[in-house]
Amino acid sequence: MSIAKLCHAVETGSKKEAEDIARDLLNQNINIQETADQLTSTMQKIGDRFARLEIFLPGMMESAQTMTLAMNILGSKILESTSKGEYASKKAGKVVLGTVKGDLHEIGKNIVKLMLEANNFEVKDLGYDVDSMQFIKEAEAVGADFIAASSLMTTTMPHQKEIIDLLKDRDLRDKYKVVIGGAPTSQEWADRIGADLYCPDAGSSSKLMAALLQRK
Amino acid sequence: MIRFWDVLERAENGKILAEKDWDRMIGEVAAQVVSDYDIKYDPEDPVPTDDSLADRLFEAGVELFEKTGIYCIDTGKVLKFTKDEIMEALEGAPERAVYGSGNDVVEMPHREVEDPRDPVVNFSAVGTPVTEELFVPICQSYAQEPIADTFSGPLITTYRGMPVTSGSPVEMEAGIWNVIKLREAARLAGRPTIPIHNFMSIAERTDATIAAARPELGALAGDGLFVAAIAELKVDYERLKKVSFLINSPYVIGGLYGPLMGGYGGGPAATAALLVAHHILGVISFRAQRHNAFPIHIHNICNTSRDMIWLISITGQALARNTHLVTVANAFMASGPCTETIIWELAAHSVAATVSGWHLNPCAVAKNRHPLHCSGMEPRMHAEVGHVTARGGTTRKEAGRIVKALLERYEKHISNPPIGKSFTECYDPVSIKPKDEYILLWEDSKKSLEDLGLKFKLL
Per the database record, which ranges form the B12-binding domain (chain A) (predicted)? Predict the structure, then answer.
């Protein structure tokens, strides 16, 4: 059993196979840093394939779930390696993500979540119909870098602005990068409400957010 | 025959399921049925001519719906229907929708594949954000077009300086304003009783819609409203409340379905099956008299890419050949007004949709996200192409050749399209006439389209 085979199982969404390989790898003297890096690289490739629509959302979801299963099994090894200083998580940033109040659309938001996780972001997904204060409370609770709010209707877009207004009211505006997206939103809207970043599509979200964090 | 009460009862008493499990199941079932019925997307054949493929797609869509049903978000329940109930509902569905009254009656019959009758064209500034000041002039630019059978408006995001937020009193006030201003635009266009096929484009909530649905404000008997499904195959109580209101009203009910190609359903073939299933959802749970489809490419936010044209064409054929539903294709353009690219996009969508049995509902423009980027010229061009396509007796084979030639011209721009010009750059805002630049662009483009085989002298 090899890391390459595990990556292949993740790519094909073969859950049982991935679990078997991960258990087998536990008994080998593997480099957990290398394993995590290769799995992350695999998920990035899968994200790229989705961006080109060579695969579709169900395929990407299967791969993400398979990767999660494998990482859960490797969890004890990761903890052990972390304590020995052999492994350092390379989290790109922490994101509190949700679809704003009054809006039940979440497919785009779910894709953003997968793309971010594939690119090493830690994501707290609040779901849809999320109250503006809830975004802020969760961001405070997890120590987020980003608040990412999606809206699919023009009548719910004002809640993206509301999040920013509430952050200002509480003197928290500079603490978080506010990212917005969703079909009716635009760079113009982001500029008008003072968002830090507008993501035109799910595929670009991780790169744009990583670049924004580097500029911090 | 399934009654609306049965729908409500099943929304309360169906099997409970977590929403994420529903989303996952949709992809699994869609993949299974397209495999079982051998539905394959062929990029070389954007307007398929294979009747058996269309018929298999219909069967796949019915089986998909039978296996999945509908998900009600508010109750977390799954509404299931037997195949007998599905077929009976399709059999009993309206085969025509009738808008308007008096001299402004517009009949929308079921259309067939390669139907030589004109498609009915519903002129719509689908979801484009505009300002309060330009709302009426923009609506007028749609309603005044002689080829427009019905019209509807764009939306405003602020009203009297306040954001139009879902569920707020401002939303209700803006909704009432919406109806008043649409009818005002119709009067200014010289067509005071032209049907408005969707008189509420600003407010989302049902209470705001009901508040505005009054003839003295301008929502006349024989106008219409849309009820939109949530992707994929989901409804909620807000929508079902709207249906409850509409079936007791004089308004035409339109179902609105926008499965995401590349999303939970999967690729073009699976999303086509899902779109067929959405129409069944509309028949059963929305009691829809006409059905609007706006499948969208998950990355490009339009439906004019090659795979989307195929999806629209084959789904239209599947529904036209196997049901008597009144189906309407919503055009979503990547490019913006007054660009050459949008003309090729509009033409490709119109040709493919018209020969595939759809009526036409043009159009969202510039990916629907650029304020004020819409005008009556875009639906005019789409409608003219649709009319000459039908009147010329265009076959699917000929349509496929034309569409492929047009795709060559625009598909490389789809991911980064030109956003074009705003309404005031395209139109004189006082006379509400298109500027010469846009008229000349269209006249020149028509010559090129004639070279491809479209005969504009038939108009």
Answer: 92-216
Fold category of A93-214 in CATH: Rossmann fold (3.40.50)
Residue B254 carries which side chain, given as an amino acid letter? G
Going from the C-alpha of B295 to that of each of B167, B225, B231, B232, B278, the distances in angstroms are 27, 19, 10, 11, 11
Q: Domain for residue B289, yes or no? A: yes
| Nearest residue in A to B156, CA atom | A154
- The answer for residues whose C-beta is within 8 angstroms of residue B447's C-beta and 6 or more apart is none
Query: In this complex, is the C-beta atom of B236 within 8 Å of any C-beta atom belonging to chain A?
Result: yes
Task: Report the complex ipTM.
Answer: 0.77
pLDDT at position A72: 83
**Which B-chain residues 40-79 have CB contacts (< 8 A) with chain A?**
73
Residue type, B109: P
Mapping DSSP to helix (H, G, I), strand (E, B) and coil, where does residue A112 land? Answer: helix
Boundaries of every domain in chain A: 3-83, 93-214
Residues 6+ apart with CB under 8 A from A121: A91, A92, A93, A94, A95, A206, A209
d(CA B404, CA B397): 11
Question: Does residue B129 sit in helix, strand or coil?
Answer: strand
Count how many domains chain B has.
1
Structural domain includes residue B401: yes
For residue B419, is it within any domain?
Answer: yes
* pLDDT per residue as tens digits for the range B68-116: 999 999 999 999 999 999 999 999 999 999 999 888 999 999 999 999 9
Residues 6+ apart with CB under 8 A from B171: A155, B164, B165, B202, B203, B204, B205, B208
Sign of CA dihedral A104, A56, B254, A152: positive
Q: In this complex, is the C-beta atom of A184 within 8 Å of any C-beta atom belonging to chain B? A: yes
What are the Cα distances from residue B404, in Å, to B44, B48, B229?
Answer: 8, 12, 31
pLDDT tens digits for range B317-341 = 999 999 999 999 999 999 999 999 9
Which positions ≥6 away from A216 have C-beta within 8 Å? A177
- Do B167 and A102 count as a contact with CB atoms less than 8 A apart? yes
* Sign of CA pseudo-dihedral B72, A111, A21, B29: positive
Q: B103: domain range?
A: 96-125+227-458
Q: Do domains A3-83 and A93-214 have the same CATH topology?
A: no
pLDDT digits (tens, 9 = 90+) for A10-50: 999 999 999 999 989 888 877 777 888 888 888 888 888 88
3-class state of residue B95 by DSSP = coil
Domain-embedded: residue B276? yes
Question: For residue B224, which phi and psi values (nearest 5 degrees)?
Answer: -145, 170
Residues A58, B266: C-beta atoms closer than 8 Å: yes
User: Considering the domain A3-83 in this protein, what is its CATH number?
Assistant: 1.10.1240.10
CB A6 within 8 A of CB A21: yes
- Give me the CATH number covering residue B325: 3.20.20.460
Torsion sign (Cα): B264, B266, B268, B272: negative
**Does the beta-carbon distance from A102 to B370 stay under 8 Å?**
no
